[in-house]
Amino acid sequence: MTLIETDELTKHFSTDSGVLTRLLSDETVHAVDDVSIDIERGQTLGLVGESGCGKSTLGRTLLRLHEPTSGDVYFDGDNITDLSQRALRPYRRKMQMVFQDPQASLNPRQTVGELLRKPIEFHGIAEGEEAQARTAELVESVGLNRNHLNRYPHEFSGGQQQRIGLARALSVNPEFIVLDEPVSALDVSVQAKILDLIESLRREYDLTLLFIAHDLNVVRHVCDEVAVMYLGEVIERAPVDELFADPRHPYTEGLLESILLPDSAASEDLSKLPITGDVPSPIDPPSGCRFRTRCPEAMTECDRVDPELRSRKGERGERTVACHLYD
Amino acid sequence: MSLLNVRNLRTHFHTEEGTVKAVDGVDLDIRPGEIVGLVGESGSGKSVTARSIMQLIEPPGEIVDGDIEFKGDSLRALSGERIRRLRGKELSMVFQDPMSAFNPTQTVGRQLHDVLRTHREGPVSITNRLLGRDHSPEFREEVVEALDAVGIPSPEERYGDYPHEFSGGMLQRAMVAMATICDPDLILADEPTTALDVTIERQILSLFRDLVDNRDAAALWITHDLSVVAALCDRVIVMYTGKVMESGPVEEVLSNPRHPYTEELLESVPRYDEPDDELHAIEGSVPMPTDLPPGCVFADRCPEAHDRCREAHPPMYANVGPDGDHRAACYLLEEER
Amino acid sequence: MSTVTESTDPDSDRDAHTERDYSTARERVLSQVRQSPLAMIGASIAVFLLLLTVVTLVDRHLLNRTLITTLLHDPYATHPENRLQAPTLVHPFGTDEQGRDILVRVIYGAKTSVIVGVLSVTFASIVGVAIGSVSAYYGRIVDMAGMRLMDVLLSFPAILLAIALMATLGRGLENIILALGVVYVPTFARVTRSEMLSQKEQEYADAARVVGYPDRNIILKELLPNCLTPIIVQATFSIALAIIAEAALSFLGLGVSPPTPTWGMMLSKGKPYITDAWWYMLFPGLAIMVTVLGFNLLGDSLRDALDPQEQGEGRI
């Protein structure tokens, strides 16, 4: 059953902020272009890609932190794209977010207790003493303890701050959480604990997750399905094991081949560069297939037509690829 | 013959909460032609080690002990002027954030040009600067070559671009160019690829390896990422809260770690080729730097700790592996003898 | 102060960069202020003046000047036989042309300066912060409109604008406060806007929006508390400026009406006697100088105390 669905969701940013200059110039950043995806209830969808691919923007646009330029977002069948802030409020309860920078995502002037209690009270979930009790439960469910409620965010380590971020997301009993690179800023030895916590919370609260990451190793462990983005478009999507075993899109292949492991036995040949060059500017993406400038398999058709995401039957389920090689 | 020889380096920071022993008894040694990886998580002291070597430590920090010998000369004994002349020319540094290494108001080409000129001819007099007589076409050409050597396309045009006109990866390449343009003997790289995408990172690593090999230079590569160390480095040093836990040839240490911390660290790296493995986390937490335990700093989190470990920090045991020069600081190794 | 050691919690981790543990911003600031002698001087002057203001207000309105008259002299009582006496033990600051003791008039003058300074800045900060916040938060047209309005105000030199406003409004304490308040609104608007612009880009602002708080809540309760630092610093400097401005207005005869002594008015009255009765202008002038110095020192030290903390601590 689909919980989140987007229909040709697009988000463009203008490069200038002046009113007049924007009228005159035409430079827009194509952060997200015509993305149509869906996430099933209970699923953990991984969203991967490199900087500038739009994965973060997509996550935020889903939650209407950015207003979509065009296209629609559906939550549990309801179109939430154009709802007013007031009408959106009940949906906000159901859709939450955990941010990449644990410290920056916590208001430095609020104690942990305050920042957990306010959403609870704001959404009318509980008040006064009951709200206090709930914050205590919350903070314990993420592995901290009640004494921490009186402290300020800067007194905690990165991992603990991220736990607080998780607690805040959970405070309103959401159904869907966007996790925007939740462990990227943490040390490796701490990442595992947070990932474990996310998994156990997911099971306990029956959550649907969008897990945005750039580290494919992490994604392998956490997600059911993975969607790969490049320059604002989703170019491949498959069940996780399938994607790693049999990547179809040349970009996905290149990404997987670029992964380094702490395995000297694999004798990494650094002179082999699966993907060369730089990501083109999202202000002026290449015509046709956006990856063609770096694609080892580019054909003549690739610069004329931007390939659509088409379904292919995979070994383990439905998968989609946007590449002329498979058309 | 070592290019860089560090013995018993101790760098402490005197803060209101107490003295932070950021680096506490570190030995390291780099020979020409090799890339040594310095690995550690946050708080391990790896960055401070590099800054100590470069003599960049300011109060409240202080190098309280240790010898740092570069090409036979003690760096700590050198005057400020001598150090300045060394830096950039024989001993250079690459930083994590290229944007902060470049002056945003000058073109990249110009900045590289000035670095080159300063080290070849000394600083420019003000008169010459005002008269515009400080720009040399020969140096410019060298800079363009250097930009080309690091893989920046259209280097002639990019010479005149400002730092903000470069992408992250390109600017990092430019920084590598700046660090290598004077043909230094030793390059200290402080997490230069940590913030980069994996495809770009790979390019920078490849470039760096080539540069070091071609110039017969040496490098100290600081990172928290064991995978990068595996791909790039010849030897590795593993640090934890200011101390060296293990060091040795990369192949050795990574395939046959002799210190529990290294083992634990390796286990906690998620791998896409082992999806069924449960994610492994290291128990406990890094101790407060002002409040380090009396014995082995890792004892509280070590699955193999026993009483002896809490009494005193273990010494470094040498030859713990078949390939010479593999060392680890763990009492378990003594018991094995 | 208390450090956070999570030894009771087996699951807690203390991984990333060593964060120093400070308890609250207030404690840090107080400790830094206490450590700097100049800061302490500034703070002492400011506190002293505030207390003096309160005491003299009470004395003037509730006690009918009995306190000061008993302790020293009556600031309003004229004694023509004592006119223009040089400083003596009885009259440490000398007397004016109506024989009134200058010391007590300087003391009484303090309250006008302080009240005008504090209240005009209060007004300016409330209005300025509101305009600045809204401009920064909504951006685009709103920002343009707000800031151009501020530019209009800023295009007049402060004193001239104040004079123009006073000319329109007429004399009186309320009008001075209003006029000076208006003059300083743009400063606060700018300072607030600048800080607000950077705060609203922070992830915690996004987090607040994701929770669903309406904009009003986000500006007031989430973002503004984090913008206070430069606003507070600016306020202390503006109080100093307002005090000078009030003195200037009084000097020009546009200030409060007699018999209320104000420092500026005393300067003005003392001008004809500058060669014969040097004490007449000196002491009110010194009072202004010390007051302004005090608030400036306070502002400087607050800025230094509050700033490094904002940058975060060095990482090891």
Secondary structure: elements and pairs:
The complex is a heterotrimer of chains A (327), B (337) and C (316).
Chain A: E1 2-14, H1 19-24, E2 28-35, E3 38-40, E4 44-48, H2 55-62, E5 70-75, E6 78-79, H3 85-94, E7 95-98, H4 112-122, H5 128-141, H6 158-170, E8 176-180, H7 188-205, E9 208-213, H8 216-222, E10 225-230, E11 233-239, H9 240-245, H10 250-258, E12 310-313, E13 318-321
Parallel strand pairs in A: 4-9, 4-10, 7-8, 8-9
Antiparallel strand pairs in A: 1-2, 1-3, 1-5, 5-6, 10-11, 11-13, 12-13
Helix pairs in contact in A: 4-5, 6-7
Chain B: E1 4-15, E2 18-30, E3 35-39, H1 46-53, E4 61-70, E5 73-74, H2 80-86, E6 91-94, H3 98-101, H4 108-121, H5 126-130, H6 137-149, H7 155-158, H8 168-180, E7 186-190, H9 198-215, E8 218-223, H10 226-232, E9 235-240, E10 243-249, H11 250-255, H12 260-268, E11 327-328, H13 331-336
Parallel strand pairs in B: 3-8, 3-9, 6-7, 7-8
Antiparallel strand pairs in B: 1-2, 1-4, 4-5, 9-10, 10-11
Chain C: H1 25-35, H2 37-61, H3 66-71, H4 102-138, H5 140-154, H6 158-169, H7 173-199, H8 203-211, H9 215-223, H10 228-251, H11 263-270, H12 278-311
Helix pairs in contact in C: 1-12, 2-4, 2-12, 4-5, 4-7, 4-10, 4-12, 5-7, 6-7, 7-10, 8-9, 10-11, 10-12, 11-12
What does this structure look like?
- The complex is a heterotrimer of chains A (327), B (337) and C (316).
- Chain A has ten helices and 13 strands.
- With 327 residues, chain A is an alpha/beta fold.
- In chain A, the strands form two sheets. In chain A, strands 7-8-9-4-10-11-13-12 form an eight-stranded mixed beta sheet, with helices on both faces. In chain A, strands 1, 2, 3, 5 and 6 form a five-stranded antiparallel beta sheet that branches.
- In chain A, strand 12 and strand 13 form a beta hairpin.
- In chain A, helix 4 (112-122) crosses helix 5 and helix 6 packs parallel to helix 7 (188-205).
- Chain A is globular and about 65 Å long.
- The two termini of chain B are 30 Å apart.
- In chain B, the strands form two sheets. Chain B has a seven-stranded mixed beta sheet with strand order 6-7-8-3-9-10-11, sandwiched between helices. In chain B, strands 2-1-4-5 form a four-stranded antiparallel beta sheet.
- The two termini of chain C are 21 Å apart.
- Chain C is mainly α.
- Chain C has one domain (26-313): MetI-like fold, CATH 1.10.3720.
- Residues 1-23 and 309-316 of chain C have low confidence and may be disordered.
- Chain C has helices at residues 25-35, 37-61, 66-71, 102-138, 140-154, 158-169, 173-199, 203-211, 215-223, 228-251, 263-270, 278-311.
- Chains in contact: A-B, A-C, B-C.
- At the A-B interface, helix 7, helix 8, helix 9 and helix 10 of A face helix 8, helix 9, helix 10, helix 11 and helix 12 of B.
